[in-house]
Amino acid sequence: MVLYVIGLGLGDEKDITIKGLEAIKSSDKVYLEFYTSLLGGSTSIDRMKEYYGKDIILADREMVESGCEEMLEESRTMSVSFLVVGDPFGATTHTDLVMRAKERSIPYQVIHNASIMNAIGCCGLQLYTYGQTISMVFFTETSKPDSFYDRIKSNRRDGLHTLVLLDIKVKEQSIANLLRGNKIYEKPRFMTINQCIEQLLEIEELRQENVYSKDTLCVGLARVGQDTQQITSGTMEELVNVDFGAPLHSFVIAGDMHFHEKEFFESFRVNSETKRLPPPESSDNEDN
Amino acid sequence: MVLYVIGLGLGDEKDITIKGLEAIKSSDKVYLEFYTSLLGGSTSIDRMKEYYGKDIILADREMVESGCEEMLEESRTMSVSFLVVGDPFGATTHTDLVMRAKERSIPYQVIHNASIMNAIGCCGLQLYTYGQTISMVFFTETSKPDSFYDRIKSNRRDGLHTLVLLDIKVKEQSIANLLRGNKIYEKPRFMTINQCIEQLLEIEELRQENVYSKDTLCVGLARVGQDTQQITSGTMEELVNVDFGAPLHSFVIAGDMHFHEKEFFESFRVNSETKRLPPPESSDNEDN
C-alpha cells in the first residue's frame, strides 16, 4: 500500500500537520521513532495515542538500525505511518529508510515538518548566514573527538554562524552490559548547553588556534518550538552557568552579525534575571 | 491580545499544523504574506479561506516592507494570525516583524513548519554537509551580481553541498512605472533551474577560477513537498535542458558525497525518460 514517513515537528502532539494527521488516521499501523530525538515537554505516548486515535508501536534503536525490515515489508500490503520527531530528513537513519523503500519499489510519501535545522531561525540569526552544522558528542576520559573544531574554524573564517547539535543518548548499553549481551539500558542522557561550552573550551585549550574563546558570542536555545522555549544569548563565559532547564538544548556560535541580527541577539542577552545553575558542589545535574 | 506568526509549510492548505490551524480559528483577523514565496500547486486563496473558515487579508510587498504597522497595533487588542509560506524565520522580513513585536511588548507566538532550508533533505544529501546557502537573482544586461561565486568556492573547498535559492519576483514594478508612480505590476516571475545553471556557468566563464563546471554534479528540485514534486540529478550540462515544470524550483550543487548520498543521488539521475525542454526557437518558457 504505502509507507508514510511523517515529521512531527518540535513541540507536542499538535505540531503535526493536517496532512500528517490524515495519513495516520488512514494507516493500519503506526510506528514512532524513539531514539534520535525526543518529544516536547508533556507529550507522552499515551497522549499521542489518544489524540491520533491509533495505537503506536515504538521503533527503538535496534529496530531502526537493523533497517525496519518488517515495517518495510508490511508497507507492501497495508498503510503504515512512521513518525519522526522534527523532519523526516533530519537524521541519516531516516534518509536510509526512504532509500530502501525506493530501491524496493515500496510506495512512500514523505510529510515534512519543522526541524531544528530551520527552526533555529528563531534566535534571529539568519539561516543563510550559517555555515556547516556540527554535532557535539559526550566526551569520555579516552575519547574527545574534535573534528568540529576545524569546521567552526572554517565557518568563523567566513564570518558564518555555527549550529551545534547536542548529543542524545537514548537506550544506550554500558560496555559491560554490551559485552555480556545484557539488554539493560542506561538512563537517557541529553547534553546541556553548559556541557557543550565546557567541551568547546577544553578543545580550544588543547588546540590553541584561537578559533573561539570564553568571550565569543553565542546563543543557547532550549525546547525550541515548545511553550517553555528559552533563548539566552551572551559570551560562552556568560552562558556556561545559565540554567536552561529541561532538554533538548541547542547551541549557536555567532559569526559576524548584521545590524538586525545584533539587535535580536541583544534582546535575548543574559541579564540579572536569568536563572543560574546552582554551584557545582550542590549539583549533580552535570552527569545526568 | 496576541500575534500568531504561522508557517504554512511547503505544500498546500493541509500542510499547516494542528496548532497553526487552531490559532487561525481563534483569530479575529488573518493575514497572508504573499510576495516572498508562493503556495503550492492548486492551493488558491479561496480554498484556504474555505478550509480555514476565515477571511484572509493579503499582505503584499508594500504592507510587509512598510512594517505591517497596522497589523502590529491590531495585535494589542485582538488575536491576529500572520501566515507565511514555509517557516516564519525563512525570510528576513518576517524575522524583523517578530523583532518589532518583541520591542513593543506585543505578545506573539511563532508556530514553526517545514521550509526549503530543511525539506531540501529530500534529495538525500545530508543537511549537516551543506555549507552556506546562496541566493541567485535574475541577471540583467547591466547587473550580474556574483558574490555567490566566492561562497560556492568556499563550500566546495570544504567538500560541502550548496543550496541555491532561486529568485522570485512578485508584484514588481517596471522602472518606467516606478518613476511615474504607476501602481502597475509585472507578471510574477520565478527563476527556473535552467536559468540558474546558465547564470552559474556565465559567471564561471567570467571568473575562470574553476569553482565548478558543466560537469559538476547537481540536483534540481521542483515543487518540494507537493504531490507533483520532482527531483532530478545530473551534471549541470545534463540538467540545463531538463523540464522541471511549474515553480518553485530549487537547486543544489553537490560537494563531496558519501556512499549513501551517492546512492541516493544516482536514484534520481537524469535518464532517457526525463522530460526535456523544447528547443529554444519554439519555446518562450525561459522568459516567463
TrEMBL record, chains A, B:
<feature type="binding site">
    <location>
        <position position="87"/>
    </location>
    <ligand>
        <name>S-adenosyl-L-methionine</name>
    </ligand>
</feature>
<feature type="binding site">
    <location>
        <position position="90"/>
    </location>
    <ligand>
        <name>S-adenosyl-L-methionine</name>
    </ligand>
</feature>
<feature type="binding site">
    <location>
        <position position="166"/>
    </location>
    <ligand>
        <name>S-adenosyl-L-methionine</name>
    </ligand>
</feature>
<dbReference type="InterPro" id="IPR035996">
    <property type="entry name" value="4pyrrol_Methylase_sf"/>
</dbReference>
<dbReference type="Pfam" id="PF00590">
    <property type="entry name" value="TP_methylase"/>
</dbReference>
<keyword id="KW-0949">S-adenosyl-L-methionine</keyword>
<keyword id="KW-0489">Methyltransferase</keyword>
<dbReference type="GO" id="GO:0032259">
    <property type="term" value="P:methylation"/>
</dbReference>
<comment type="function">
    <text>S-adenosyl-L-methionine-dependent methyltransferase that catalyzes four methylations of the modified target histidine residue in translation elongation factor 2 (EF-2), to form an intermediate called diphthine methyl ester. The four successive methylation reactions represent the second step of diphthamide biosynthesis.</text>
</comment>
<feature type="binding site">
    <location>
        <position position="224"/>
    </location>
    <ligand>
        <name>S-adenosyl-L-methionine</name>
    </ligand>
</feature>
<feature type="binding site">
    <location>
        <position position="10"/>
    </location>
    <ligand>
        <name>S-adenosyl-L-methionine</name>
    </ligand>
</feature>
<comment type="pathway">
    <text>Protein modification; peptidyl-diphthamide biosynthesis.</text>
</comment>
<dbReference type="InterPro" id="IPR014776">
    <property type="entry name" value="4pyrrole_Mease_sub2"/>
</dbReference>
<comment type="similarity">
    <text>Belongs to the diphthine synthase family.</text>
</comment>
<dbReference type="InterPro" id="IPR004551">
    <property type="entry name" value="Dphthn_synthase"/>
</dbReference>
<dbReference type="InterPro" id="IPR014777">
    <property type="entry name" value="4pyrrole_Mease_sub1"/>
</dbReference>
<dbReference type="GO" id="GO:0017183">
    <property type="term" value="P:protein histidyl modification to diphthamide"/>
</dbReference>
<feature type="domain" description="Tetrapyrrole methylase">
    <location>
        <begin position="3"/>
        <end position="239"/>
    </location>
</feature>
<protein>
    <recommendedName>
        <fullName>diphthine methyl ester synthase</fullName>
        <ecNumber>2.1.1.314</ecNumber>
    </recommendedName>
</protein>
<keyword id="KW-0808">Transferase</keyword>
<feature type="binding site">
    <location>
        <position position="249"/>
    </location>
    <ligand>
        <name>S-adenosyl-L-methionine</name>
    </ligand>
</feature>
<feature type="binding site">
    <location>
        <begin position="115"/>
        <end position="116"/>
    </location>
    <ligand>
        <name>S-adenosyl-L-methionine</name>
    </ligand>
</feature>
<dbReference type="InterPro" id="IPR000878">
    <property type="entry name" value="4pyrrol_Mease"/>
</dbReference>
<dbReference type="GO" id="GO:0141133">
    <property type="term" value="F:diphthine methyl ester synthase activity"/>
</dbReference>
